[in-house]
Amino acid sequence: MGNTVLLIEDEPNIIEAISFILARDGWQVKTHSNGHDAIRAVREHDPDLIILDVMLPGKSGYEILEQIRADPDYGEISVLMLTARGQVKDREMAERAGVSRYMTKPFSNADVLHAVRALAGP
Amino acid sequence: MTGSSIAGSRIRDRRQLAGIRQTDLAREVGISASYLNLIEHNRRRIGGKLLLRIAGVLDVDPSVISEGAEATLVAGLREAAGDQESRGVELDSVEEFAGRFPGWAQLLTDTHRRNVELERSVESLTDRLAHDPHLAESLHEVLSVVTAIRSTASILADTRSLEAEWQARFHRNINEDSQRLAEGAESLVRYLDAAPGTEADIKSPQDEVDAFLDAHGYHFPSLEAPDDKDEDRVDQLLAKDRLLKSAPALKIAHDILNRYQADAGRVPLKPLISAIAVSGVDPAELAMHFGVDLPCMLRRLAMLPSEAAGPTGLLVCDASGTLIMHKPFDDFAVSRMAGACPAWPLFRALAQPQIPFCLRIRQAGRAVEPVTAVAVAEPVAAARYNSAPILRSYMLLMPDRQGHDRAQEPEEVGTSCRICPRGDCAARREPSITQDGF
Questions:
Q1: Is the domain defined by A4-120 classed in CATH 3.40.50.970?
Q2: Is the ipTM of this complex over 0.85?
Q3: CA B310, CA B282: separation in Å to the nearest integer?
């Protein structure tokens, strides 16, 4: 597996912080910050793993996840979802949409690193 | 209406309860059995010493016979007993309780109403928290900023030998975010402080409008002025009001008052009062006399001062059966919370729009006078193929009328299933908690 992560998130300072820690951990980080054309960004950057925020301008993370899962080239990719809502209902929705892992804000840097490493596999 | 005219029924009930024969009671109080029979069937009024003597023989407080229990009080008690699902409430003596301890009964009824209101407040507050978009948005904002700060702060704290350039950048980010966090938290607090606020947010708009109309006695002299239609007068009236707080309530009241003003223009007050003085309160007759549709006349009669048209009640519903206006009437109990009875003419009229009904009805249960109900439904929008039925049904309630109407036996209708004693009812939705009739 390669080491490119695509971070789809609209909060600039979260983008900066996560990019920084992932880059320090040896990842190639690409970012994208709106929902409309998220799927195009996936094709363009050809990532190995995606970190996806649920509340994005233009399109919800669930819809983007469904598009990703329906895509012939990226249907199997690992997706880590970030959300500010920890409700059971949201978690279920994410699971139905086919999320690989789910994280609730506010998370720690160590949580993110741990999740990304676990998704990347041994 | 619930006054002495049915004292006879109560004497009969009491006598039977005590197991005294009519002839024996008549002899004891010194009247003929046939006269007592007339009294017991409410054909002769009773008062004064005779009432005291009868009460004495029956061993009850005279007020139990003379005043009886207010029908609405009894209905309120039944409702309270129903909602509590309480076993062991002596439902068969509800009227006796209301009659003997009217103060306590009223207190219990009021407490129950308050309880229902509070439950509704809690529901709407819970609902508000769960579905409030503004609250969700604010919390999301706060959590996002907290996440950014936490992440950035831990980079600053944990990264050894962080380049000066990055350090400066993260410091700046934290500073920005902490400012946003402060603003977000502040707006959240401001919102929560203001949110539940007054009761206006919690009461339904319909409740507010009912309170408003009630406070004015359902009559608005300033809208009766005969000159041309003046929108401002409705606005002036609403501007002075303090009962209507929410925007939806204001809108509903505005619509009602505009219609009131239009109705008053078509059926002016003075000629209407004169016509009533001549021919009495016959809605269909009066509608024809003034050349207006029946719903207009029903609304008009419901909004007259009671000196002019006697006491009146009004129920208005849409095609879904949802009550959209309710002017209470003494002998006809209505509970918005518990639901209505499909036997009411109000709902029959929905099935045959524009065909008026005039019926003597009596709500099941004892000590309730019959009432005269005039109902009609009208379309309020032009008909289209396959469109939803846009109807409005009106039912005017009046005291039981004298004269030829008496020929029709009053038809028994219910209040709401849970507290309705009618046993053989095909329209029943749920079992009744009252035992009489089964």
A1: no
A2: yes
A3: 12
